[in-house]
Design goal:
The complex is a heterodimer of chains A (171) and B (163). The longest helix of chain A is centred in the middle third of the chain and has 32 residues. Chain A has a two-stranded antiparallel ribbon. By secondary structure, chain A is mainly α. The N and C termini of chain A lie far apart (52 Å). Chain B is mainly alpha-helical and 163 residues long. Chain B has 3 domains: 80 residues; 31 residues; 50 residues, no CATH class. In chain B, helix 2 runs antiparallel to helix 3. The radius of gyration of chain B is 21 Å and the shape is extended. At the A-B interface, helix 1, helix 3, helix 4, strand 1 and helix 5 of A face helix 1, helix 3, helix 4, strand 1 and helix 5 of B. Strand 1 of chain A pairs antiparallel with strand 3 of chain B, so a sheet runs across the interface.
Chain lengths: 171, 163
């Protein structure tokens, strides 16, 4: 029997720990709970892999299975879970859909447009970027501050250009 | 080694099929099409694996590796398919280099990108909602994926309203 169980158990530990930590802190320190739960899952994975050393014929076989197969599985599943949790928080589509579903008679178009006002939408994003230092304001002009988001934006743009042959969904 | 090579091979093959299909014609529903490609490739392999007596545990291990990587790619792809307002803004500011952008320029740039309207259109296109006169109305039952996400969100409290 191969050691496919350990990344599953590690992911279950990650998910449960994140929910418990988040609830214990009454909905605060969200990112801290994500990182702590991920580390707990990683420790579980390590323990699980160590358990399978005894059943493996060669240490090198086990090491390869642990590093090249089970570690990526755990990272992949954790990435999926993180995005799943994030969805309800950041996905505009999901939030609008949940509001429309909540009203059996539907939601008036103008109400949705007021709630998700494009101008307010920009202001909120700009404010968040200023607070995080990713954007700085000087003499009425906005400039790039920290470059971490710019690197992500460049990678996404390159991928979009390669896959979709365009730079923006509005092109 | 067998699990690793099989899974990576399947992933590369699926990616190649995805690229060929995308070069030939962009599908209307990107995510659904991607899931179909990954699913069909795996099912075809699984059929062959049963015929050629691949071990059951090894098959499950391949499914786990392949599934987690495929889902990670699909999630990342959703960020490629639709523009992120924040990242679009960041790139717009970066293009101005040392000159920066004024509030007016930022507002004009964002006005050319109606993100909210685009997301509503995507919901209409996917058949989840329809525009009924002056209202948006949900169509049919909620898909399972939405029910799972919304159900899970109850653990965290209500979803905040607005943009």
């Amino acid at each position: 029997m191969s050691s496919f169980v350990s990344p599953i158990v590690a992911t279950v530990v990650n998910v449960l720990a994140q929910i418990i930590l988040f609830r214990l802190r009454r909905g605060t320190q969200y990112f801290r709970s994500i990182i702590q739960a991920f580390l707990l899952g990683a420790i579980t994975l390590l323990i699980g892999e160590a358990f399978f050393v005894a059943t493996s014929e060669l240490i090198s076989n086990w090491l390869f299975l642990a590093l090249a197969v089970n570690l990526p599985i755990y990272l992949g599943l954790s990435y999926c879970y993180y995005n799943f949790v994030q969805l309800g928080q950041t996905s505009i589509r999901l939030r609008m859909y949940s509001e429309i579903v909540a009203h059996t008679s539907g939601v008036i178009v103008s109400e949705i447009e007021r709630e998700y006002d494009e101008r307010g939408f920009t202001e909120v994003r700009l404010r968040r970027l200023l607070e995080s230092g990713d954007v700085i304001e000087r003499e009425g002009h906005y400039f790039i501050g920290r470059t971490r988001l710019l690197h992500i934006a460049n990678v996404i743009l390159a991928a979009k250009h390669f896959l979709l042959r365009k730079k923006s969904e509005f092109d | 080694m067998k699990i690793f090579i099989t899974s990576v091979g399947l992933l590369l093959f699926s990616f190649a099929v995805h690229l060929i299909v995308w070069r030939f014609r962009l599908p209307q529903h990107h995510i659904k099409s991607l899931l179909i490609i990954f699913g069909v490739v795996f099912c075809l392999w699984a059929f062959g694996a049963v015929v050629y007596s691949f071990g059951l545990f090894e098959m499950f291990h391949v499914a786990l590796f392949y599934g987690s990587m495929a889902l990670s790619y699909v999630i990342t792809y959703s960020a490629i398919e639709a523009d992120s307002p924040t990242l679009s803004l960041i790139r717009f500011l970066a293009e101005a280099k040392d000159n920066g952008r004024t509030v007016t320029e930022v507002s004009q740039f964002m006005a050319q990108r109606p993100f909210v309207r685009a997301r509503l259109s995507a919901l209409v296109l996917s058949g989840l909602i329809r525009e009924d006169g002056s209202r948006f109305v949900a169509v049919g039952r909620q898909p399972l994926s939405f029910r799972v996400i919304l159900g899970f969100r109850k653990l965290y409290g209500p979803i905040s309203r607005g943009g």
